[in-house]
Design goal:
The chain is of the alpha+beta class. 46% of the residues lie in helices and 19% in strands. The strands form two sheets. It has a four-stranded antiparallel beta sheet. A hairpin with a 4-residue loop joins strand 5 and strand 6. The longest helix has 13 residues. The structure holds inosine-5'-diphosphate and magnesium ion. Inosine-5'-diphosphate (IDP) binds next to loops.
Length: 183
């Protein structure tokens, strides 16, 4: 019943170590995210252990690139974001561009990976590829977060854009909460 009322979709985005190591690129990608009308629901900066990175990418078990992917993903800090938007899942992947940077540089140079990607491994960003994946990946990084509860309580403020960006947290907060905190 509640599902049909949902207007915004949530997705899990990761800004990978190549991006976080370059503050001006991090800033530029954040501004693309905002220009494209995504809202930051929750954000965390962290370092993945190799074990956690392997768990996150378990669908790629056995692939030739898994080892280098796991060592890259655990090589430095990453930012993880829960992003909200209409059609957030396909839209975030569209803005990221295709996976293989060495092709994407030529075929979709305007995308994030086309602009800033370094190699097929160091390709800037991650985005969930389906509703089920998004739910699993959000839970992986934000176990305390409830997607259902967010839709029931916070979505309405985000949908009507009654939110403001807390730049330090990299999180949009409901204007209601801000005025409650001030009064
Ligand atoms: P996605 O990130 O676009 O969803 P996946 O196929 O799920 O792409 O692959 C996960 C990650 O593994 C990619 O983002 C990239 O970092 C890495 N990867 C995928 N294919 C290759 C490859 O052919 N060579 C090196 N790294 C790869
Ligand atoms: Mg993938």
């Amino acid at each position: 019943m509640m599902r049909a009322l949902r207007k915004l979709e949530l997705t899990l985005a990761i800004l990978k170590p190549d991006v976080v190591a370059q503050p001006h690129i991090l800033k530029e990608i954040r501004s693309v995210i905002l220009q494209q009308e995504f809202l930051f629901v929750r954000s965390k900066k962290l370092i993945l252990s190799p074990t956690r990175a392997k768990e996150f990418y378990k669908e790629h078990d056995g692939k030739f690139f898994l080892n280098r992917l796991v060592s890259f993903m655990s090589s430095g800090p990453i930012w993880t974001h829960i992003l909200a938007r209409e059609n957030a899942i396909p839209e975030w992947r569209r803005i990221m561009g295709p996976t293989k940077v060495l092709k994407t540089i030529h075929e979709a140079p305007e995308t994030i990976r086309g602009r800033f990607g370094l190699t097929d491994t160091r390709n800037c960003t991650h985005g969930s590829d389906s509703t089920e994946t998004a739910a699993r990946e959000i839970k992986f990084f934000f176990p305390e977060f409830s997607i259902g509860k967010w839709h029931d309580t916070e979505e309405t403020h985000f949908f009507s854009r009654q939110v403001s960006l807390d730049e330090d947290l990299c999180q949009h907060v409901s204007l209601q909460d801000v005025s409650d905190a001030i009064s």
